[in-house]
């Protein structure tokens, strides 16, 4: 009888260890594990115990996603003195690795969508374009030329810290140069002002003259 009891205990212990091993879930360094429990969701950034048939677990990517923004040609940014600038920048965003922000993202978008780089790009591209245009519009062309290394600070500050659980990890100015004359519309009052500006103090100055081979800043 004792032997049977001991055998049963050994089987039970081994079975429990096997079940515990199968229930332990791990995630990669750029992922978060969201466990839906009866009380409240739990977030783990390395590994956690997930009870089978009782709890559901989802993996959320917290990998950095590049959101390229190109305001060039007809879509170029306009400066305060109505000149146009072709600006290409890249925002690098990711889900902030805190419990609160992870849950905020999951509740708003779901793990599958929020882990899709294309969805993240579509989520932020329009907002980033509008903010970039606003910053460039606040500067005249000469100021933009002088201040472009700091333009990222202004853009990030204007966006503010609340991005719905996401954060901007990096902002890079890829290219910033004068827009070619062919993208000015003489029937547009603002473009006419810009052309008049070019015909005056700016035309002929290398850093400002729109040209196909204009150097990046």
Automatic annotation (TrEMBL):
Residues 28-169 form the Band domain. InterPro entries: Band_7, Band_7/SPFH_dom_sf. Residues 192-217 are annotated as: Disordered. Pfam families: Band_7 (PF01145). SUPFAM superfamilies: Band 7/SPFH domain. This is Band 7 domain-containing protein. It comes from Persicimonas caeni. The lineage of its organism: Bacteria, Deltaproteobacteria, Bradymonadales, Bradymonadaceae, Persicimonas.
């Amino acid at each position: 009888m004792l032997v049977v009891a001991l055998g049963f205990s050994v089987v039970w212990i081994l079975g429990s260890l096997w079940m515990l091993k199968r229930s332990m879930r791990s995630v990669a360094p750029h992922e978060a594990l969201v466990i839906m429990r009866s009380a409240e969701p739990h977030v783990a950034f390395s590994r956690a115990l997930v009870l089978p048939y009782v709890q559901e677990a989802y993996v959320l990517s917290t990998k950095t996603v590049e959101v390229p923004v190109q305001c060039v040609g007809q879509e170029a940014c306009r400066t305060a003195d109505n000149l146009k600038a072709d600006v290409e920048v890249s925002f690098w965003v990711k889900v902030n690795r805190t419990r609160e922000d992870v849950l905020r993202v999951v509740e708003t978008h779901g793990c599958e969508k929020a882990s899709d780089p294309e969805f993240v790009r579509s989520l932020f591209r329009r907002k980033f374009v509008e903010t970039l245009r606003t910053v460039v519009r606040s500067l005249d062309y000469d100021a933009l030329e002088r201040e472009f290394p700091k333009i990222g600070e202004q853009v990030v500050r204007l966006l503010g810290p609340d991005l719905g659980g996401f954060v901007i990890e990096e902002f890079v100015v890829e290219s910033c140069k004068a827009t070619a004359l062919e993208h000015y519309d003489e029937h547009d009052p603002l473009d006419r002002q810009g052309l008049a500006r070019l015909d005056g103090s700016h035309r002929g100055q290398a850093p400002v003259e729109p040209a196909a081979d204009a150097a990046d800043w």
